[in-house]
Design goal:
alpha/beta; four-stranded parallel beta sheet; 15 helices; globular
Length: 305
């Protein structure tokens, strides 16, 4: 079956099944092109609460589908690819959270959405890279246990010196693989280019960035900037949207490691297969779902105000 035939079949099945397709910026450009909504993790979590369709087909990694199901228990949530997972989501455990709570009774456990439902259920509030600063700033707690990503936590801690951060040894392997030396080499080749970096990058990488922001913030910055040349320090799936919005501008990667193999598992073929079977479906224990819903709901409330 040709790509054109697959896309036509996806469009037809989507209507028949009353399904909406949500896709993250890091999946392949062909998948982004057939999605109804494309965005970063915050946008997709928010959008999942407003769509009217009966079913959500998620093109991304498992924690994103879980978040959609947590917020929409009445909807069928289907993953395009069940094996697409985020290693960082598993880099903290419940025992560690309990240890920190015992040591700091007044601590706020701030959980990056890149986490499992179980970890969310043991947290006080969720955040994304686009709203973490805004939300943590609003918390009354002095002590903040930021999980699971250490780099994003350190980036936020720098901006909030009045709060005491406890960090977790977690990271995104894609962003951790983007090194300062590689950026400086790219700058030698493209001296006119601005460096735009995701806060999941390491502190030394962020130290040479001209702008630090979430995936959507990087896209918005590049689109509104008068500059026409950019070195992009995040997963390369973002290049599709950057070039769609800015065909006249130039975007450069830092190196070959800017690639998430899990996100790239999502393709047109498994989107079609998932629509045909309406599987694999995300199913969560109701008690776990309700516990995990509270910090996600608090995130949406605090981010909106």
């Amino acid at each position: 079956m040709s790509n054109k035939e697959i896309k036509e079949k996806i469009a037809r099945l989507k209507k028949e099944k009353n399904a909406v397709i949500l896709a993250h910026y890091y999946v392949d450009g062909e998948v982004q092109a057939i999605a109804d909504f494309v965005g970063d993790s915050y946008y997709l979590a928010e959008k999942a609460t407003t769509v009217s369709e009966d079913a959500i087909l998620f093109c991304g990694v498992s924690f994103m589908g879980e978040s959609a199901k947590i917020l929409n228990p009445e909807k069928k949530v289907v993953m395009a690819e069940s094996s697409a997972d985020c290693p960082m989501a598993h880099m903290v455990d419940v025992e560690k959270i309990k240890e920190v709570r015992e040591q700091y009774p007044d601590v706020a456990v701030v959980c990056y959405v890149n986490s499992t439902a179980e970890i969310k259920a043991h947290s006080d509030v969720c955040v994304t890279s686009s709203n973490a600063l805004k939300i943590v700033k609003k918390l009354p707690n002095e002590h903040i246990f930021f999980i699971p990503d250490e780099n994003l936590g350190r980036h936020i801690a720098e901006k909030l010196p009045d709060k005491h951060f406890i960090f977790n040894d977690g990271f995104c392997h894609v962003h951790k693989s983007i090194h300062k030396e590689d950026i400086l080499k790219a700058k030698e080749v493209h001296p006119e280019a601005m460096v735009l970096a995701h806060p999941e990058c390491t502190p030394d990488t962020l130290s040479v960035a001209d702008f630090i922001g979430s995936t959507s913030q990087i896209i918005d910055y590049a689109t509104s900037s008068e500059k026409t040349s950019f070195i992009i320090c995040t997963e390369m799936g973002i290049f599709y949207e950057l070039m769609q919005k800015n065909p006249e501008k130039k975007f450069y990667s830092v190196g070959h490691r800017q690639f998430c193999p899990n996100m790239k598992k999502v393709n047109l073929e498994n989107v079609l297969e998932s629509l045909e079977k309406m599987a694999p479906e995300i199913e969560l224990d109701e008690e776990l779902r309700e516990s995990a819903r509270k910090p996600l709901k608090r995130m949406l409330e605090l981010a909106a105000n």
